[in-house]
Amino acid sequence: MTKIEENIREIRRRMAEAAGKAGRDPAEIMLVGASKMNDAAACQAAIAAGIDALGENRVQEMRAKLQEHAYDGAPLHFIGHLQRNKVRQVVGTVSLIHSVSSMQLLEEIDAQAEKRGLIQDILLEVNVGGEESKSGFAPEEVYDAAAAARNFSHIQLLGLMTIPPVERESHGNLPHFSKIHRLYVDISRNLYNNSFKYLSMGMSDDFEDAIASGATIVRVGSAIFGRRNYQT
Ligand SMILES: *Cc1c(COP(=O)(O)O)cnc(C)c1O
User: Fold this and answer.
1) Which residue from 10, 36, 95, 170 lies 20 to 30 Å from 70 (Cα-Cα)?
2) Ligand 1 mean position, distance from CA 52 (Å)
C-alpha cells in the first residue's frame, strides 16, 4: 500500500466516525484531494486509492498537470482564487468551481459557459472571518448574491464554500462552520427549492468539525499528500 493510499484510508475512517457521531451517512460526504504542489504521480496514486475528486488552486499548475493526465479517472474541481482573465481556461475543464468570490467573476463564468454551450456548476465562496487576505462574499452579502445568481442561465449554483481563519484553539472553527451551514440551509430552502448539494468546508486540521457542522465536501491536502514544500 502506498503512503497516499494509507492516508486516504485513515481519513475515510475518521470521516465515517465523524459522520456517525453526527448521525449522518458517510456516503453523502465527498473527499476532495487538494493536490496543489503535488505532481501527477501523486494525483494518480490518490485516484487509484479512490479519492472522490481532485481540487486545484492555480490555473497554470492545473494546465500543466492536465497535459500529464494527472486527473484521468476522477472529477477535477477548481478550489483556488480565480482571476477573471483565467476563467476561460477553467470553465468546462472542471466539473465544479468552489471559489466564486464576486459578482464580476460570476458574470464572467456565465459568459464563458454560454460561449462554450455548457452549464458550469459552481459554489459561492464565503469569507466567514471577514479577513482582508481572503476573497469571498461577506456572510451578509451571500444571500443576495445567491438570489442574483438565479438570473444567469449558464451557471448552476449548488452550494457554498468557505475557508475559515486559522484558529489556534482546537475546535476554534466550529462557530464559523455552523454559521455557514445555517446560511447554506437558509439559501437552499428560500431561494433554491432545497436543491443545494454541496457545502464545501473543512481541511486537514478540522474536517471532522466541518462534518459535525454539515459539510458535504471536505478538501484535504497535507493529510493525504504530506506537508507541502514551499521552498522549491
Ligand atoms: C490547500 C487547500 C486545502 C487543503 O489544505 P490542507 O490544510 O493541506 O488540508 C483546502 N482548500 C483549499 C482552498 C486549499 O487551498
Assistant:
1) 10
2) 15
Ligand 1 binding residues, C-beta < 6 A: 34, 36, 57, 79-80, 163, 203-205, 219-223
User: Could you read off the pLDDT of 48-76 as tens digits, one per residue?
Assistant: 999 999 999 999 999 999 999 999 999 99
For the chain, the domains span 3-225
Q: How far apart are CA 170 and CA 155, in angstroms?
A: 37
CATH level 2 (architecture), domain 3-225: Alpha-Beta Barrel (3.20)
pTM of structure: 0.97
